[in-house]
Task: inverse folding
């Protein structure tokens, strides 16, 4: 039962590769895949690349070539929900593609051919992932990002949105979020890959779960907050969360 651990950026993945036992690097479709054992469990570590198409290709290779049993995404995202702050952690229950619009033929945001606007994550795997995040936040808080006001990082669970756009302006963030919220889709965070992986995993019947640490607020400061977070804390989050998750599987 091999678990695929997907990251978007090398900085998010580096800690995991460093801990891999019996590591074997395989190149396929212009991508590097790392097979091995992490905390005693068989894994494949992969980079999704940035954006939905790159992520869909990686997910397809994981299904077709590596025949993985499940896919877990760990990465960073911009927080758009109320109270979702830098350093907080969001576990996706489901995903929406915020840049999909085939209306009026189909409901806005719905990928034609799929039952609804929301692409669900696997409930059982997601529960394991939430448990792992909670254990991290309870136990290793000092190693995590603590807010300037002393508030510890918090776990949020719910809807995430993906699209081919780095959201780096408050106005764009509102234009993306407000119509979704008005339609009953209270989106917590925005990133660029997860919904594509969710879609491919639905196609292949592969359980999928995703966790994103909030690197920025998808606002006018995002271009400063994002690289800082990536360089300092992102890989530590991935490392802790994946360790707790693999132990629980
Ligand atoms: N030039 C950058 C590009 C990163 S794009 C680099 O290579 O370092 C941002 C990445 O972080 C994407 O993988 C996306 O999933 C996530 N992300 C973080 N904050 C985001 C935001 N505000 N909007 C969209 N994606 C965001």
Result:
């Amino acid at each position: 039962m091999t678990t695929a651990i997907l990251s978007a950026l090398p900085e998010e993945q580096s800690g995991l590769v460093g801990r891999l036992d019996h590591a074997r690097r395989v190149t396929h479709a212009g991508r590097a895949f790392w097979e091995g054992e992490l905390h005693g469990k068989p894994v494949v570590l992969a980079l999704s690349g940035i954006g939905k198409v790159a992520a869909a290709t990686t997910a397809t290779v994981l299904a077709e070539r590596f025949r993985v049993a499940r896919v877990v995404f760990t990465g960073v995202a911009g927080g758009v929900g109320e109270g979702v702050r830098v350093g907080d952690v969001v576990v996706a229950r489901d995903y929406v593609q915020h840049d999909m619009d085939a209306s009026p033929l189909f409901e806005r945001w719905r990928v034609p051919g799929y039952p609804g606007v929301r692409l669900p994550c696997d409930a059982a795997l997601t529960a394991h992932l939430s448990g792992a995040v909670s254990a991290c936040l309870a136990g290793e808080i000092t190693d995590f990002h603590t807010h300037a006001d002393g508030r510890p990082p918090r776990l949020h669970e719910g809807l995430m949105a993906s699209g081919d756009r780095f959201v780096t302006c408050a106005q764009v963030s509102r234009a993306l979020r407000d119509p979704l919220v008005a339609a009953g889709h209270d989106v917590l965070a925005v990133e660029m890959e997860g919904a594509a992986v969710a879609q491919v995993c639905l196609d292949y019947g592969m359980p999928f779960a995703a966790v994103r640490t909030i690197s920025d607020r998808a606002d006018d400061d995002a271009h400063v907050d994002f690289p800082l977070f990536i360089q300092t804390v992102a890989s530590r989050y991935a490392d802790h969360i994946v360790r707790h998750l693999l132990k629980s599987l």
